[in-house]
Every structure is written in structure tokens, then in C-alpha cells.
Amino acid sequence: MKKRTRYTDEPMGKLERVGDFLPPPERLVMRDDNIKVTISLSKASVDFFKRYGRKNNIAYQRLIRRLLDLYAQRFRDESLTLRCSGRSLRARR
């Protein structure tokens, strides 16, 4: 059985007021600038993302956007690295 906490009116000692340290709500979530596009995807791909999204309680469009963002970021960063090292993307293949 769980032990119950008993609260009393005893003095708590010297208290210190803490200022508001949280940012405003609009600064809590960093949002990227998005643009609307029209794209045709295979039914199988969309069904996959919808199933996965329902299973994990995530919007399927958000999953697709995240996948594309990660893909672009990986290859954007890689192309910068290759360019700085003097190698081109063609030389790698």
C-alpha cells in the first residue's frame, strides 16, 4: 500500500522568488519556413506513411517532410565537405 503524504502548516524557512525563466510559447518551437508543393507519390508510399503515422500518432505529411529534410541535409552537408576537400561529387562515383 502506498504511504500517504501529510501536509502541515509548519514554517518552510526562507523562500526565494524565482523569476520567469521560460521563453514565450512562440519561441519554444522553432519553425522552418515551409512552402506548399504539389507532388505525386505512389499509393504504396503514402499508405506506408499513413500506417506508420497512425501507429505512432504522427501526421503522415510531417513524416514525409522530415524524411525529405533529413535527406537534403545529409547530402547538402556532404557536398559542402566534398567541395572543401577539393573532390567533386562526380569523382566519388
What's the gist of this structure?
The protein is mainly alpha-helical. The protein is built from four helices and no strands. Helix 2 (43-56) crosses helix 3.
Q: Any overview of this molecule?
A:
The protein is mostly helical and 93 residues long. It has a domain at 42-92. The protein has four helices and no strands. The chain has helices at 25-28, 43-56, 60-84, 89-92. Helix 2 (43-56) packs across helix 3. The longest helix is centred in the C-terminal third of the chain and has 25 residues, at 60-84. It is elongated. The model has no long low-confidence stretch (mean pLDDT 82).
Strand coverage percent: under 5%
Overall pLDDT: 82
Give the N-to-C terminal Cα separation.
66 Å
Task: Please tally the helical runs, counting DSSP H or I stretches of 4 or more residues.
Answer: 4
Note poorly predicted spans.
none
SSE string: HHHH
Helix content: 40-55%
Structural class: mainly alpha
How many beta-strand segments? Answer: 0
Outline type? elongated
Taking all Cα atoms into account, the compactness measure Rg is 25 Å
Instruction: Report the major sheet.
Output: none
